[in-house]
UniProtKB/TrEMBL annotation:
SUPFAM superfamilies: NAD(P)-binding Rossmann-fold domains. The keyword Phosphoprotein does not apply. This is Sugar dehydrogenase. Belongs to the short-chain dehydrogenases/reductases (SDR) family. It comes from the Bacteria. Keywords: Oxidoreductase. PANTHER family: OXIDOREDUCTASE, SHORT-CHAIN DEHYDROGENASE/REDUCTASE FAMILY (AFU_ORTHOLOGUE AFUA_5G02870) (PTHR43639), SHORT-CHAIN DEHYDROGENASE_REDUCTASE FAMILY PROTEIN (PTHR43639:SF1). The lineage of its organism: Bacteria, Pseudomonadati, Pseudomonadota, Betaproteobacteria, Burkholderiales. GO terms for molecular function: oxidoreductase activity. Pfam families: adh_short_C2 (PF13561). InterPro entries: NAD(P)-bd_dom_sf (IPR036291), Sc_DH/Rdtase_CS (IPR020904), SDR_fam (IPR002347).
Amino acid sequence: MDKRVMLITGGSRGIGAATARLAAARGYAVAVNYVHNRQAADNLIASIRADGGKAIAVQADVAVESDVVRMFVEVDQHLGTLTALVNNAGILERQARVDELDAARLARIFATNVTGCFICAREAVRRMSTRHGGSGGVIVNLSSIAARLGAPAEYVDYAASKGAVDTMTIGLAKEVAAEGVRVNGVRPGVIYTEIHASGGEPGRVDRVKDAVPMKRGGEAEEVAQAILWLLSDEASYVTGTFVDVTGGR
Ligand code: NAP
């Protein structure tokens, strides 16, 4: 089997960490990006290595272009040619209505969730696309079901940023489809991770789970399975589309 090298942004916790673990178990060499929580990244790397996998941790703020450029060079140097990018880093802020938002908050949300996703995709395409001398690859963007539902009275700004991610997924997929690169999105519903605490409501999943047709929140591992499928050759004719992991919402 060819060597498979994955970079996952925001890979130190939550959905990203579950994806990094599953990818390593399936034979990927994994670069785990984080921004602040070095301890979480180091613990994950240690546990992947203890299980016989290959992984490195790379600090970078995806909202900062020079950080992203440096991160990709580090991956080149330590793991070799990138074959998979998972654009997973994403943030939301305290629940608020649109009539309470300000431009500084919008700038923070869009810098991480949208600009970060674009710049990481750019660096990946420069390495993967046959147009640039690459041998192909796969990109998976983490969107959210909020892109469809709008997240009223919680975070319409976050939902709109994920709408932008969806549009980018469709456009980029078509741009590079004939260059050996597939691009797809995964849209989770409510998943048990720490992201809800940053919205000010750590117990949010349990509050809203009855609105989910399956009547439960999702686990990070269930999202990771969908991501790994899209990255795999089993999805070889799948590009420019989305897998919703929502319990039917
Ligand atoms: P999480 O538990 O809050 O973890 C966020 C991860 O992103 C951490 O590893 C964090 O690093 C990293 N990160 C944050 N800002 C970053 C930046 N500027 N640069 C690099 N890394 C950064 O999040 P999650 O719930 O697993 O969510 C993962 C993705 O799924 C996000 O895109 C989110 O929008 C999406 N999603 C989640 C849910 C859900 O219910 N959980 C639902 C729909 C969509 P540190 O550890 O260093 O802070």
